[in-house]
Design a protein that fits this description.
Shape: globular
Distance between the termini: 59 Å
Mean pLDDT: 75
Largest sheet: 7 strands, antiparallel
CATH architecture of the largest domain: 3-Layer(aba) Sandwich
Number of helices: 5
Low-confidence stretches: 2-58, 60-82
CATH topology of the largest domain: Protein Transport Mog1p, Chain A
Strand order of the largest sheet: 3-4-5-9-8-7-6
Structural class: alpha+beta
């Protein structure tokens, strides 16, 4: 029995070592709430202890063992930390785009200030291969060229600033689902992010269409295989 328990604890440690880098990446890319969804403390990278239970108590030991047993299924799914890309097409009819995500995406929303005006950004994000794949959509107050340019400048500068890079962008054509293309911008920037100055590579495409500004981005802790980058961006189409 003791041998089984020790074996389970070793498995738990391996699983934690897989999840911790992902948790840190999500914290520094999208905020503290993402780390909590993985069950990690944003400040330490360690699982948060339950209130009122000391680390050495028998109750804590029983709770930990139960947690480890439950984590066995997760360990099988993680496949010894091997990154997997389970691509699926997601159609976002509310915000007018379709894209391939490498995992089932989650949804979030936040307020952003663009030229002193509060706007809402809707986010869809998915994690695979130690990278975050995301599409952010900003609902603009109008479809004037000035508003569109201000939104794109805000998104471009913010992503580059997060890794201490220059917001240099190149023109690119973004496909429309009905046929044709619309002009946009693309960047690839690398630098140090977060309090620990960890290396990050950001791939991004930006476009304004109608009353929406879009940010399709990949934030990775190391350069990704080009075929995975191409899969994401080539599938990004606007309605």
């Amino acid at each position: 029995m003791l041998r089984t328990v020790f074996g389970l604890y070793r498995l738990s440690a391996r699983i934690s070592s897989c999840l911790a880098p992902i948790s840190r990446l999500l914290v520094r890319s999208w905020g503290r709430s993402w780390a909590r969804s993985w069950g990690h403390s944003p400040d330490s990278g360690r699982p948060a202890a339950s209130a009122g239970v000391s680390a050495g108590s028998p109750r804590r030991a029983r709770t930990s063992l139960a947690t480890v047993l439950g984590a066995l299924a997760l360990g099988v799914a993680l496949g010894a930390c091997s990154p997997t890309f389970d691509w699926r097409t997601v159609m976002n009819n509310d915000n007018g785009y379709t894209v391939d995500f490498p995992a089932k995406p989650g949804n979030d929303q936040r307020a952003v200030q663009i030229n002193g005006t509060s706007m809402q950004m809707a986010m869809q994000t998915a994690e695979a291969g130690h990278a975050v794949f995301a599409v952010g959509t900003v609902m603009l107050p109008d479809d004037s060229d000035a508003t569109r340019h201000a939104a794109l400048d805000f998104l471009r500068a913010g992503l580059a600033r997060n890794v201490g890079a220059a917001p240099d962008a190149q023109p690119v054509q973004i496909p429309l689902a009905a046929g044709g293309k619309t002009p946009g911008l693309e960047m690839k920037v690398s630098g140090a992010a977060g309090a620990q100055h960890e290396a990050r590579t950001v791939y991004v495409r930006l476009v304004a269409h109608g009353r929406h500004a879009y940010q399709a981005a990949i934030i990775a802790d190391q350069p990704l295989p080009q075929d995975q980058v191409d899969q994401f961006f080539s599938s990004f189409q606007l309605y």
